[in-house]
Design a protein that fits this description.
Blueprint lengths: L7 H7 L36 E2 L4 E4 L17 E5 L4 E4 L5 H14 L4 E5 L5 H4 L2 H6 L3 E5 H21 L14 E3 L2 E5 L4 E5 L11 E4 L4 E5 L16 H14 L4 E4 L7 H24 L4 H5 L12 H16 L3
Parallel strand pairs: 4-5, 5-6, 6-7, 11-12
Antiparallel strand pairs: 1-2, 2-3, 3-4, 8-9, 9-10, 10-11
Helix pairs in contact: 6-7, 7-9
């Protein structure tokens, strides 16, 4: 199995330091370059230019770090699939500028229209650029729970986008999906069928994957992680995620995996980066519960084996605390 990459992916995963040693103590891990360069594509809103994953599948690999002004909010993967009649985009981006920049790359490859935009979930960086695609005539598609998420959080998404762009008047709007999917659907791009699949709960409401069987590629979204630590939110069902991942694993075992964050890889890598991590946290939390441990003890669960993952500093303790709290009521 061959995955076409370019040297930027090496830099993306290397965590090259951008700061002098004298200044490092005052900087965050992002500023120190521990999660990769602040930007890899100067003079373009995209964090990096799209790479070719297979003959018909491309992905612009986002920063594996929190959204910043420098990475323009491109901290997830923005992918697209080219059929004989039309193009499908996966993730609208966190603002219209990112969407437009991705579209320019698509138009440099094909003159076919973007007929569909599928959001991997209802998170800000998956949906906030959807207005741009709607204006281009695309049909917006997401999972039903993701639709509820964007309805509930539209105001917060607008405020956060303006704060990240350092502009209180930044032009941003949240638009609803045109079509929702609960479990499974297919789309014909012209001699190329893509499948929209919901395996169940993952790390946020409405997680959905896109499979391109003829290309042996699954755009897994936030079902699967590597390089970057998986975030566990208050609403994340870690037990449900374990079950969903196992279904995903069985169906896409031999496929090229384009995760929500980090470059294309294989099932073994995202299993280690997702399922094995979830099982470890749940095992350690259960030990604490059996011993009468507290939430403070949960925050101290030994996660030293994962310190090399990007966003470890921001997420590790919170992840453990949330898993412990949820398991108290399982």
């Amino acid at each position: 199995m061959t995955i076409k990459t370019i040297p930027l992916l090496i830099a993306l995963c290397s965590g090259l330091s951008l700061a002098s040693s004298a200044d490092e103590s005052a900087l965050t891990p992002v500023e120190r370059g521990e999660y990769g360069p602040l930007d890899m594509y100067p003079n373009n809103p995209l964090y990096s230019a799209p790479i070719q994953v297979s003959e018909r599948v491309y992905s612009a690999i986002g920063a594996t770090q929190p959204a910043t002004f420098e990475n323009h909010g491109h901290n997830n993967n923005l992918s697209f699939v080219i059929g004989d009649r039309s193009v499908l985009v996966v993730n609208g981006g966190s603002n219209d500028e990112l969407a437009r920049a991705l579209h320019e790359h698509i138009k440099a490859i094909t003159d076919l229209p973007v007929d569909y935009v599928v959001s991997e979930n209802g998170q800000r960086h998956a949906v906030t650029g959807n207005r741009y695609w709607k204006q281009q005539g695309a049909t917006l598609i997401g999972q039903t729970d993701a639709q509820h998420e964007i309805e509930d959080r539209a105001g917060d998404y607008i405020q956060t986008t303006r704060r990240n762009r350092r502009d209180d008047n930044y032009d941003v709007d949240i638009v609803p999906f045109d079509r929702t999917v609960d479990e499974f659907d297919t789309l014909d791009l012209g001699n190329l069928t893509v499948e929209l699949k919901v395996w169940g709960p993952a790390h946020s409401p409405g997680d959905m994957a896109v499979l391109v069987p003829s290309e042996n590629v699954v755009i897994a979204g936030d079902m699967a992680f590597h390089v970057r630590m998986p975030p566990i939110f208050d609403e994340t069902d870690s037990a449900g995620w374990v079950e969903s991942f196992q279904l995903f694993q069985a169906e896409a075992q031999d496929m090229i995996v384009v995760p929500g964050h980090g470059g294309p890889t294989d099932m073994a890598t995202v299993t280690a980066g997702t399922l094995d991590y979830l099982l470890y946290l749940r095992e350690q939390a259960q030990i604490l519960l059996d011993e009468g441990g507290s939430l403070d003890d949960a925050y101290k669960i030994d996660q030293s084996q994962y310190t090399h993952w990007h966003t470890f500093a921001e997420l590790a303790a919170r992840n453990a605390g949330r898993v412990f709290t949820q398991m108290e009521f399982e």
